[in-house]
């Protein structure tokens, strides 16, 4: 099954149908610069909802939109809290300034504009992010369509693109504790044992870790690809390898990349963990994004955001061709 299906319309034009954009997802965006109370009020004004204070250990605030779905503003202890003084100086702040926005279940085509409006409103209210402040974005993908085969595909896809993704997404050493690269020993065990069931994969995933696999903050979760969330109650495949952003275009690129990776895992007959050539990083990423279906003007900005930090040229694998000598 192709990643993007080309259909010729009756008018003769080419229509790109992207099944990958139909998958359900959720997003968590970490930030600072404003308090949780301020952030919740911003979200409520943007979606026309009201704030309900829940409290508990995360100091939660729930904002319900008109269709009943709920956004959550809560604390995250990993964020380094900061605030901005009247003169523009940013200084350390109390834990009230640790802000995480958690979305309800979304779809790209129906809900991205709402998410975009919320992000822009939070930025205008004074929220900001910085990877050195441990701010990240986590994208949860619907686990319902997955099975043992597709989960193995996902493991191999992320393993093969580890280095390219970390360079593309500019994941800094400050954040690697929270989103480690794919464990090579896990990949090798999958390859050697060839598990056929989800239960067999689950046992391999938790090998070598202490504690109970039912713990919410189990240490196995802190990887770019987190399957702990899949094997426990949430039943989602989580991608944790994104620096936090309040730039709607970059967030769009992250979401589309996550959906495309998910769609590849779901539809490809098999996936290899072998790493691609990277002597020309930009070319490797551009051709991979093309394979995923990120083709044409609709995805031009996504390709730009995902390739701009890579070395090389996107047009020529072995660099620019030599210039032809002018004929006298």
Task: Please tell me about this protein's structure.
With 328 residues, the protein is of the alpha+beta class. The chain has a domain of 159 residues. Helix content is 36%, strand content 18%. It contains ten helices and 13 strands. The strands form three sheets. Strands 3, 4, 5, 6, 9, 10, 11, 12 and 13 form a nine-stranded antiparallel β-sheet that branches. It has a two-stranded antiparallel ribbon with strand order 1-2. Helix 1 packs across helix 2 and helix 8 packs across helix 10. The longest helix is centred in the middle third of the chain and has 21 residues. The protein is globular and about 55 Å long.
User: Helix-strand pattern, N to C?
Assistant: EEEHEEEEEEEHEHHHHEHEHHH
How far the N terminus sits from the C terminus, by CA atoms, comes to 53 Å
Task: Tell me the major beta sheet.
Answer: 9 strands, antiparallel
Total beta strands = 13
Judging from the principal axes of the Cα atoms, what is the shape?
Answer: globular
Condensed summary:
This protein has helices spanning 36-47, 108-124, 148-168, 173-176, 184-193, 198-206, 228-231, 248-267, 281-292, 300-307, and strands spanning 5-8, 14-17, 24-31, 51-55, 60-64, 70-74, 82-84, 90-92, 99-102, 106-107, 136-142, 225-226, 236-243.
